[in-house]
Amino acid sequence: MSSLPLAPNCHISHLLTTKLLKLMNDDVPFFITGKGRKGPWLITCDHARNHVPKAVNNGSLGLAKGDMQRHIAYDLGAEGLSQSLGDLLDGPVLCSNFSRLVIDPNRGEDDPTLLMKLYDSTLIPANRDADCDEHNRRISNYYYPYHKAYSKLATSERAIVAIHSFTPKLRGQLARPWEIGILFGKDRRLADAVILGLKLKGNLVVGENEPYAGHLPGDSIDQHAQSKNRLNILIEVRNDLIKNVDEQNDWARFLAPILQQALLDTRENS
Ligand SMILES: [Zn+2]
After folding, report:
1. CA of 270 to the centre of ligand 1 (A)
2. 1 lies in a domain?
3. Is residue 2 part of a domain?
4. How many Å lie between the centroid of ligand 1 and the Cα of residue 47?
5. pLDDT (tens digit per residue) in 110-166
6. Residue 73 lies in a domain
7. Which of 47, 91, 95, 206 could bridge 41 with an S-S bond, Cβ 3.0-4.6 Å?
């Protein structure tokens, strides 16, 4: 479902409109932009937002506002990059509408970090206290609907590009040198072609399965691409490079032709 449209002659004040939309969208688990687009890509953003719905612990996980703005709650800049890529590639864009700290859609159901209790040295109070019922409620209300929507969009005609972002430095660890990371599992057909494209076109520090190694059993790419033999790629961009709309659009304009060429080459060679 896309953003709720307003009637063209609506006279509600902008402030009220924004509040109303927030309220109406509070418990919506995902958004789809460009559902009817015909391009060869599905763009996904598992960690698009830092939203905590009212139904989850009354809209708070017990963290300070500042912590909810950090990378622990969502992938900064990733939603804007995804939307811009969707426009350029003419592909539908699926975004989650709940913080990864509510429940992480990019984990298998059995993964112990599905409901994160501690992340980058920050304790998440409402998750530490969450019981089994709460765990199951979040799976039913957010995780399942997101993946159901994912399944419907992930057809065999579409390659999947999953957009994420990573923090330049985790607390107490070394700075991460990569500007972009390409993650792949067993099926590295598309990843290899994109890595080649990045090396040919850009002067970037490209991480191969960095800053994270490959895919986890049951994560989004595993569920919707690897298990179905669909072409896929997961891209991680360092979040200090996509802080604003201009940077997000610049990155999308840089990545879109590389992705298109990589897909063409991969399909020709398959
Ligand atoms: Zn992510």
Report:
1. 29
2. no
3. no
4. 5
5. 999 999 999 888 899 999 989 999 999 999 999 999 999 999 999 989 999 999 999
6. yes
7. 91
